[in-house]
Write a structure and sequence with these properties.
The protein is of the alpha/beta class. The chain folds into 3 domains: 57 residues, Arc Repressor Mutant, subunit A, CATH 1.10.10.10; 118 residues, Periplasmic binding protein-like II (D-Maltodextrin-Binding Protein, domain 2), CATH 3.40.190.10; 100 residues, Periplasmic binding protein-like II (D-Maltodextrin-Binding Protein, domain 2), CATH 3.40.190.10. Helix content is 46%, strand content 20%. Helix 1 packs across helix 2, helix 1 packs across helix 4 and helix 2 packs across helix 3.
């Protein structure tokens, strides 16, 4: 088959958006060009990929499998393009980083700021996503690297542990936990909880702790963003358990952050993920070096504080 990258890009846009008009807008070509490229692709694969009507575009049987292969091909091309950008210097190029919204703010904010000040000509593409979306972003080459806090599947991804955080319980100033000299996991389990949905790795880490310690956590409200959970905690609806990189924001909101006895034995482990065999551009490699140095220093500082 003589399939072009342009055909694959148009096919993916049409598959995702289900509209010739939207696909044309997304790929910066005319609607008639989208229709022509799609027809040419269907002729190459020997079967229709979409059912067309005046109002909608519906993928045919087999289109989903073809989309997965197309994304794999385009992901490799994107990774190659990023690797070649700024290969000899840091005067240009772009770096894509994917992770959760709170991890981007609480853990990588300083790294991003320092990197931008050092290399203002390099474009930073920051993707604030849930865990599964982060994996897909890296797998498909939209991001050079990502950070998640649950061990990802190994298919198409290289991964290694990069940081280990500690979980804390956050509550309102007048919550009964504040009066305790120390707080155990059983004390935490006895409270009403505001929890993230399990598309986020914070929730998945908490579920692992609960399973390992045979705890039943009473989820009273489930939310999609940590800032929502913190707001509801402040209104007295319950407590929430967060990793250390969220504690600064919690304190800014006037909430109490309490240590949990033995929390370091059940750490919030963070994994660096990249595409297998993908060569980082000079710009992305420099960002990774700075990020690892920062996280190592932060980890050492936390250990020193615990030992005091």
């Amino acid at each position: 088959m003589n399939i072009t990258l342009k055909q694959l890009r148009v096919f993916c846009a049409l598959y995702e958006l289900r509209s010739f008009t939207a696909a044309a807008r997304a790929t910066f070509i005319t609607q008639s060009a989208v229709s022509k490229l799609c027809a040419e692709l269907e002729a190459e694969v020997g079967q229709p990929l979409f059912e067309r009507s005046t109002r909608s575009v519906t993928p045919c049987d087999g289109a989903a499998d073809f989309y997965a292969y197309a994304q794999e091909i385009l992901g490799t091309v994107r990774a190659a393009e990023r690797s070649m950008q700024g290969l000899r210097s840091l005067e240009r190029g772009r770096v894509g980083v994917a992770t959760s919204p709170m991890m981007m703010v609480g853990l990588l904010g300083e790294v991003v700021a320092d990197y931008h000040l050092a290399y203002p000509s390099v474009q930073l593409d920051l993707f604030e996503l849930n865990t599964d979306e982060t994996l897909e972003s890296v797998r498909h080459g939209h991001a050079d690297l990502g950070i998640v806090s649950t061990e990802p599947p190994q298919e198409a991804l290289a991964m290694r542990k990069i940081y280990r955080d500690t979980m804390h319980v956050v509550c309102a100033e007048n919550h009964p936990l504040v009066q305790r000299e120390s707080v155990t996991w059983k004390d935490v389990a006895a409270c009403d909880h505001i929890m993230l949905r399990n598309v986020y790795s914070v929730r998945r880490s908490l579920d692992k702790v609960a399973e390992k310690m045979n705890l039943q956590l009473r989820c009273r409200v489930e939310v999609g963003m940590l800032v929502s959970a913190l707001r509801l905690v402040g209104l007295g609806l319950g407590v929430t358990v967060v990793p250390g990189y969220v504690c600064g924001l919690a304190r800014q909101l006037g909430l109490r952050v309490l240590d949990i006895e033995g929390a370091r034995n059940h750490g919030h482990e963070l994994w660096l993920i990249q595409r297998h065999n993908a060569r980082l551009s000079l710009a992305a490699a420099e960002f990774l070096d700075r990020m690892e140095a920062y996280l190592h220093k932060r980890q050492s500082r936390e250990i020193d504080l615990k030992m005091e």
